[in-house]
Amino acid sequence: MAKNVAPDSTRRSEKSRRAIYDAALALVGEVGYPKTTIEGIAARAGVGKQTIYRWWSSKAEVLMEAFLDLGEQAGGESYAIPDTGDLAADLKAVLRATVDELKDPRFEVPSRALAAEGVVNEELGRKFVEKLLEPSLQLYVARLRSAQQAGDVRPEIDPRIALELFVSPLAQRWLQYSGPISYEYTDTLVDYALYGLAPR
Amino acid sequence: MAKNVAPDSTRRSEKSRRAIYDAALALVGEVGYPKTTIEGIAARAGVGKQTIYRWWSSKAEVLMEAFLDLGEQAGGESYAIPDTGDLAADLKAVLRATVDELKDPRFEVPSRALAAEGVVNEELGRKFVEKLLEPSLQLYVARLRSAQQAGDVRPEIDPRIALELFVSPLAQRWLQYSGPISYEYTDTLVDYALYGLAPR
Amino acid sequence: MAKNVAPDSTRRSEKSRRAIYDAALALVGEVGYPKTTIEGIAARAGVGKQTIYRWWSSKAEVLMEAFLDLGEQAGGESYAIPDTGDLAADLKAVLRATVDELKDPRFEVPSRALAAEGVVNEELGRKFVEKLLEPSLQLYVARLRSAQQAGDVRPEIDPRIALELFVSPLAQRWLQYSGPISYEYTDTLVDYALYGLAPR
Amino acid sequence: MAKNVAPDSTRRSEKSRRAIYDAALALVGEVGYPKTTIEGIAARAGVGKQTIYRWWSSKAEVLMEAFLDLGEQAGGESYAIPDTGDLAADLKAVLRATVDELKDPRFEVPSRALAAEGVVNEELGRKFVEKLLEPSLQLYVARLRSAQQAGDVRPEIDPRIALELFVSPLAQRWLQYSGPISYEYTDTLVDYALYGLAPR
DNA sequence: TTCTAACCGAGACGGTACGTCCGGTCTTCAA
DNA sequence: TTGAAGACCGGACGTACCGTCTCGGTTAGAA
Q1: Domain HTH tetR-type spans what residues (chains A, B, C, D) (predicted)?
Q2: Consecutive 10-residue runs of chain B (200 residues): their mean pLDDT?
Q3: DSSP letters along B92-142, please?
Q4: Do C91 and C45 sit in the same domain of this protein?
Q5: Which residue from D137, D169, D194 is facing C196, i.e. has the nearest CB?
Q6: Are residues B55 and B103 in the same domain?
Q7: D16 to chain C, closest Cα gap in Å
């Protein structure tokens, strides 16, 4: 029967793709992820359902690409981490910016939706991490390596693990509503992580 | 006409409730959360749909209670955190046990399902935290307070925040597939958290 | 997994059935059979699609039953064939009435639709004949038998075949648009059939 | 802007036309008329959909022309009606041949499909009659006129109507499955029609 | 002989309806 | 009065085709 032929992407309609991204993000923002339906996206985008099914295999995938696309066009290369020489101050500044972003509804609803889907759908979760999460984390890795050269962080520390000490707590509180989020909180995280819990 | 009267819980069928819990957990384990349906639970439990709708308002709630019930009958009061006087060793031991639990499929699928639902459904998320997550975390709070009295942790440290330095990274790696999980990893987390990243 | 259980017809909603019949007949009359859809019937009847699929297996079947039902409630026992003793006059009268009915749009559209479907769908065709066509034809059989006893029709004639000489031509002209239909035409058919083509 | 220009038939691809006819007839024979789709015909014929839409306006039209074409190339001018001088024998012979043809599946499926479509689609129905049915019937007209000149049929009889007495019953039994078809049956029809039902 | 206009295969597109599945409500009957 | 059973309305699912619309490519006849 061989009908599972891959579609010809050179003939893909750019206009439709954009319309689908826009509709998907708008709907997720307006009615939430679970009430966002493929039918709804298609209708809002003025597109046939088949045009969605032809290029994506689930609404999670649509939303993921829409979100990536949003980041690409809007963010440029997102925001780098400053390197003023004062590690604690630099980290606190970035985390404060992250706090703001996490509370911005423009990003919050689709991020949550994707994160939630990723929890339950391993493939999507890994793609989410690879495409969105890890690139951001690598910025911390770079900053921590720089701090190691400056002697501000012990050389035997693995930066990829180290960054989790202050990033993951914030992430968890946000994702799971397991605690309030504030500048004070993130400042505290940085201090604890840099200087440890034990007496010095 | 008023039909929205709360059902009389004294006449509730205990057998049905157990059957529903069992069916819900079994289905989530077998086909995953999204393919678990209320109809499916009802059929498997040999129960009418109305019996589910009468006592719960969503499949997330059913699963949540089923999971709580599982914990209650099985875990007793879960496992406490040992207090041998060696804080680092105690924390490493508990986190190693947690690693094992996170990899046990009996717990993994429903936990993930609930966590994911909680990400996107704030009400459920808060209940999840309150009923399942926070009680566990309080065990760490207690252990850290004890360590403060023993002088192993600086007195100005807030234990509720401190525990996140080693608990949240593990939680995030597990939830979001953002990194591998191992005894080595959790041991490292404890060391970093206790002694900080900065040179001592 | 054994979901093909027959529905329980004692609990069937009479109101829905009637609404579906009405909607089906109305739609066929308004937009024609090919543009009548199950979704359209369901929407017009204010009924879920599943309620149609639960009780019928195709739109042809729905329409068939709707039409039968129409006949039952409206027609009583349809119209009998008069027996005045004058066979030719009686047949001519009935055929004239049939001509009028065939031209009545209230009956024409659904009849055509069913007949057409029956041409191509043997099962439905046979049901159509059994439930609608044959009972009418049997009235002619009875009248012809009476004529045989009166000596107006030769005794060796098979009435079931004989009636086709004047009924089938009319049916064919109507069904296939193969010729005009008029009182004159049907009168002629009766004369030809009774007295034959050959010189007497 | 005007794009509704009639296509230039001198540049038409004969190969495509033949392939479309073949595919249409093959598909109707294999899966039946309703499951025969334009897309299916195009795919089977190795032809773009537009090539079909350019030259025909519906699948009924395609099939009609395919069928006409089949008749032309295969049948020659179909079969004439013999004129041996014995009218009854001649008619019986032709009707017996018709019985055989009606039971030949090579003709049956597309004929039924066209007839059914014609029942419900007046335009197509009339074309069907004009192109296929009426030419055949005219052969009977000719034979009956000859019989009138020979004195075997009363002169005031209208041959176009007369032929329906034996042709239409057969047609109806076939089309509507309203009765069995056999040589005996058609022989009887001829006898009844020629000599009438009334006592001579 | 080159240009250009059309047909052609292919298939993406906006749509409509399909037949299925399930959500959540309501009704019936047995215990 | 609870509970099992399941019919009901509604609505999304993912698929199949519809008829329209590009997109190269090929294949004439006109320049």
Answers
A1: 14-74
A2: 54 87 92 91 94 91 88 64 95 96 86 87 88 94 97 97 98 96 98 94
A3: HHHHHHHHHHHH-HHHHHHHHHHHHHHHH-HHHHHHHIIIIIHHHHHHHHH
A4: no
A5: D194
A6: no
A7: 28
